[in-house]
Amino acid sequence: MIRGAYAEATSCVAGDRLGFRLEGGAPGGTVTVVDHATDRVMTTAAVDGDRWTLAVPADWPSRLYRAVFSPGDCAAYFVVRARSPGGRILVSIPFATWQAYNYEGRPGEGLYYTEQPDRAVRVSFDRPGGGPPPQRWEDGLLRWLSRTGYAVDYCSNLDLHDGAARLHRYRLLVVNGHDEYWSTPIRDAVEDFARHGGNVAIFAANTCWWQMRLEDAGRTMVCYRDPVTDPMAAVDPGLVTVEWSGAPVNRPENTLTGVSFRHGAGCWGPDMEAMLVEEYTTRFPEHWVFEGTGLGDGDTFARGAIGYETDAAEHEEVDGVPRATGRDGTPPSFVILATADLRHWRRYGQGGHATMGVHRLGAGVVFNAATVNWGAGLGDPAVDRITRNVLDRLSQPWPHTAWDVIGRAGDLVALTAAENRLFAVTADGALVARDFGGQNLRWRRVGSAGGARCLAAPREATWGKPLGLYALTAAGRLAYRDPVTTRARWTDLGPAPEDATALAACVVIGDHVGVDRFGSGHISAGEDSGAAAKDSGCRLIAGDGAVRDQKISRSGG
Fold first, then answer.
1. N or C end of the chain, less CB within 10 A?
2. Is residue 300 within 8 Å of residue 281, measured between CB atoms?
3. Taking residues 90-96, what's their average pLDDT?
4. Residue 43: helix, strand or coil by DSSP?
5. How far apart are the C-alpha atoms of 188 and 195, rounded to whole Å?
6. d(CA 498, CA 483)
7. Range in 401-405, 425-429, 508-512 the model is least confident about
8. CA dist 216 to 101, 111, 124, 125, 126, Å?
9. Residue 273: phi, psi to the nearest 5?
């Protein structure tokens, strides 16, 4: 009877050889190698003794496989990596988390349970087990990918640690299910990938929660979970094996992932089935992630996809819209797309929220579904469409000219930006404002537009000329207002050029005119032969088929 088996590495390249070790091996055994996502039998062979070597055919697709040894039906899992990329998408398999839960509850052998004083702090990959947990959080997406025909390659998450994944050959990295344990090299590799234009899609939760170290050529995983007992504290505090957000590491995972289990929720043990009745609520239906779903604001979806652990960003409700506070390390660019209020889970384990969202990291984009059980919801048409939207968009080069929807324009007829806010004029003559950012914040009325039909604002006050809102009114006048959301008066600055129909503000330095471009966040400078100035200051540019300019002041010009 074969009592257990394990592979000598968590992955290998198609065309290479991979060794397996058996416990209790004897003559007359057999092995069946199966494509885990499709259950397709790839090969069978006889096994004699306590070792077996698989010569991986060069034409095997990059997938997760399991080798089942009999008698005993002992499974050993491994990934076949592509020798050259078969597509733009790379899916990471969380072998480190699988190994962390291996032999849980056994004194000195498992990293769990956390509260157990005699739990292990070092565990080896050279032992049986270390495969998917009974709930198989990763299976739903893996099987869906095989059915839908996406061209994806696979790697072990340990391949991200040592560089074998060759991550920069891909456009999109997919993190799936329950990928809880990350080393510093894994995290550095993923962040570097994103900052240089790679994208990350996290269909997972409890992601990057514990820092771990790999030793013995990657075959031993170390996680003390305690900065006092970990000897690395006296050598390199940044490598201490605690939560990524905890001291002395102080590197919150949500600076990468956008969300964290610190604000998420969990239901464990006999109460785990509570997750099956939960749903996401749509909060930003105009976003590209929801294209083709038919979901509206406040609609629910993904029943059963909210897993037993979720991640969330600390957020506040502002006029009925969730907005990340950023106090917990979540990037300011994080946009919340959907939420689930799970504070009642405190009776099952940990109360909190789930917040699906997206943010920019350097030149890359990070999407996070923020639930461990996303794959189980792929029978839901909305979950299916969202997954396709994410994979399709993020596996392509991100266009530098792409526009992101940040909210509803409604009946706006004029728009400008000043002092980290957007100001606009509505069709009924009101002045409205909202904060900057990608979140779909509501417009708030802040006063009368004073008859404005065009708005402009300089980047900054220049030589005594104020930073504020400048307007071209329907009466052909120029007017000024302080850029505040409290009551303020419009000041008349004098007549505009005859028949003017447009307005812009610029900073003039010598013969160069720099015109503020809304949405770019910077000044675009260049010569303007039609409005060249011979001195420095702040000017308004008005258009009536030609370009005219005039200096501005609070009293006219």
1. N
2. yes
3. 98
4. strand
5. 10
6. 26
7. 508-512
8. 20, 18, 9, 10, 11
9. -65, -10
**Which pair of tokens denotes residue 167?**
């991550």
Residue 10 gets which letter from DSSP? S
The CA distance from 380 to 373, in Å, is: 13
**Distance of alpha carbon 498 from the chain centroid:** 51
* Beta pairing partners, 447: 431
Distance spanning both ends of the chain, measured CA to CA: 95
Strand partners, 172: 89, 199
Residues 6+ apart with CB under 8 A from 365: 194, 199, 200, 358, 359, 394, 398
The per-residue DSSP string of 354-376 comes to EEEEEEEETTEEEEE--BTTGGG
Residue 332: asked if its preceding bond is cis (omega within 30°), the reply is no
- Residue 399 has a pLDDT of 66
By CB neighbour count within 10 A (0-12 exposed, 13-18 middle, 19+ buried), where does 149 fall?
exposed
Q: 350-392 pLDDT, tens per residue?
A: 999 999 999 999 999 999 999 999 999 999 999 999 999 999 9
What token pair was written down for 107?
Answer: 């004194």
* The pLDDT of residue 539 is above 90: no
What average pLDDT does the structure give for the chain? 90
**Buried-state track 185-201, b at ≥16 Cβ within 10 A, e below 16:** ebbebbbebbeeebbbb
Distance (Å, whole) CA 364 – CA 209: 22
Residue 24: alpha-carbon gap to chain centroid? 45
The structure tokens listed for 385 are 């469409």
Give residue 535's pLDDT.
38
Residue 434 near residue 443, CB atoms below 8 Å: yes
- Tell which wins on pLDDT, 223 or 533: 223
| pLDDT reported for residue 411 | 94
State how far the Cα of 516 lies from the Cα of 461, in Å rounded to an integer.
Answer: 13
Element (H, E) at 349: strand 349-350
Q: Which amino acid does the sequence have at 359?
A: H
Give the integer Cα–Cα distance in Å for 234 and 249: 13
> Is residue 532 helix, strand or coil?
coil
Whether residue 248 has a cis bond before it, omega within 30° of 0: yes
DSSP state of 425: E
User: Count of alpha carbons within 13 Å of 432, Cβ hemisphere only?
Assistant: 21
Record the tokens describing residue 47, joined without a space. Answer: 């096994």
pLDDT band at 277 (very low <50, low <70, confident <90, very high): very high
Give, for 509, the enclosing helix (H) or strand (E). strand 502-509
Which of 465, 459, 501 lies closest to 480, judged by CA? Answer: 465
Give me the residues paired with residue 477 across strands: 495
pLDDT tens digit string along 438-455? 999 999 999 999 999 999
Residue 546, token pair as written in the block: 């030609």
pTM (two decimals): 0.91
